[in-house]
Amino acid sequence: MGFFLIGFLVVILSVGNVIEEANGEIPRTILGKIEKMNRKGPYLGIVAPNNYELNPLLGSPSYVPSSSLPFIDFAGRKFRFGKLAGQPVVTVMSGLGMVNAGVTTQLLVSLFRLKGVLHYGIAGNADVNLEIGDVTIPQYWAHSGLWNWQRYGDGIDKELALESGGDYTRKVGYLQFSKYSNGTDNLLNRIWYQPEEIFLVTGTPEERQQVFWIPVDKYYLNLARKLEDTKLPQCVNTTCLPRPPKVTIVDRGMSASVFVDNAAYRTFLNSKFNATAIEMESAAVALISHQQNLPFIVIRALSDLAGGGSDVSNEANIFSSLAAENSVDILVKFVALLPLHESKILNDMCGLRLKESGRSCNTGKNE
Q1: Cis status, amide bond into 70, omega within 30 of 0
Q2: Is 37 within 8 Å of 112 (Cβ atoms)?
Q3: Considering only CA atoms, which of 121, 289, 280 is closest in space to residue 216?
Q4: Closest to 36 in 3D by CA, of 71, 63, 76
């Protein structure tokens, strides 16, 4: 798919030799660099939310930048090439929020030959049974910021606007604002959480499907289970956490372009959806990877109990750096578990599919 896209772009830019550089166009010099690096692929695509999480990875002794072309700058992003634990990687910082994460991930998977997508960083915690510094690896991700905001006075049995045409649904669940009022009438009524519309690269163009929970790749998840006994640092200078952080596979994570610093909403997300990691980018990375038929996994270290209330005061300011380092540590260890040869990965993935469903799969590369 990647080679076809790049070839198509080259043809467009070459017709009549009259197109130079327009807004949004990929300059020929950049296309040449992309083609050069794609010949050295496929890569693991790594998406970091911001510099706070990116810099510890770039400073890791396990990361070796490419000597021939360490990066390509395009569309406001810097795509960095190198090796991590021996694996060829292209790493990019997305920036804050769902839109940035979605745009960046789509650029990554469209421009470069990838064999998988890895996303990592820090997150707020919605599960009081876990501690700051713990590294979570959710099995499913959802976007919690796509709503149908119901009209005041309508009840839960009242059909939503545009529900009859299949645009919206009441299947996922709702948040009733009046449950959090001080006793006066609440004009906000309720919001109904909605699935995303997706258009699969393996499907018919413009034929929409709907998905709320996006599963991470099962092969990646099984590898990640081997990291659950990893020992992680507990202290920042002289301030220490109540116990050493741990790696844990959790059920679900949720993302929205909303910074959640509210204990009531944190509790709701955990009790309603069994969400643990709550943050602002991972579901976008998951949605793009899922639509593009690429295996992905997300590693998020907990930096604070969203909305406060933990035993550690001012926890985010103190332990965010520790959480970021922990997420990088587990990312590196996860990459080290992956076979260096792509054929071995494909065979392992197909073996897992055969074991679970009884169906074989094609191990040929999708170029």
Answers
A1: no
A2: yes
A3: 289
A4: 71
Tokens of 321: 């750096």
Tell me 215's DSSP state: E
Q: How many CB atoms lie within 10 A of CB 277?
A: 30
CA–CA distances in Å: residue 191 to residues 148, 158, 162, 170: 6, 13, 14, 10
Which two tokens mark 312?
């550690």
- pTM greater than the 0.90 cutoff: no
CB count, 10 Å around CB of 261? Answer: 13
User: DSSP of 17-54, one letter per residue?
Assistant: G-----TT---HHHHHHHHHHHTT--EEEEEESSHHHH
For 204, list phi and psi in degrees, rounded to 5.
-85, 130
Q: Where are the beta strands (DSSP E) in 42-163?
A: 43-48, 63-65, 71-74, 77-84, 87-93, 114-125, 135-143, 147-149
> For the chain, what is the largest distance between any 2 Cα atoms, rounded to a whole number of angstroms?
70
CA distance 304 to 318: 9
Query: pLDDT per residue over 96-136, tens digit each?
Result: 999 999 999 999 999 999 999 999 999 999 999 999 999 99
Q: Which two tokens stand for residue 240?
A: 């220490």
**pLDDT tens string 152-204:** 999 999 999 999 999 999 999 999 998 888 777 788 999 999 999 999 999 99
Residue with tokens 């795509």: 79
Strand pairing report for 214-215 and 135-143 = antiparallel
Helix (H) or strand (E) holding 301: strand 296-305
Going 337 to 338 to 344 to 345, the CA torsion angle's sign is positive
d(CA 170, CA 162): 11
Residue with tokens 């040869």: 341
More confident residue, 35 or 353: 35
Angle between helices 98-111 and 2-14 (to 10 degrees): 80
Does residue 366 have a pLDDT over 50?
A: no
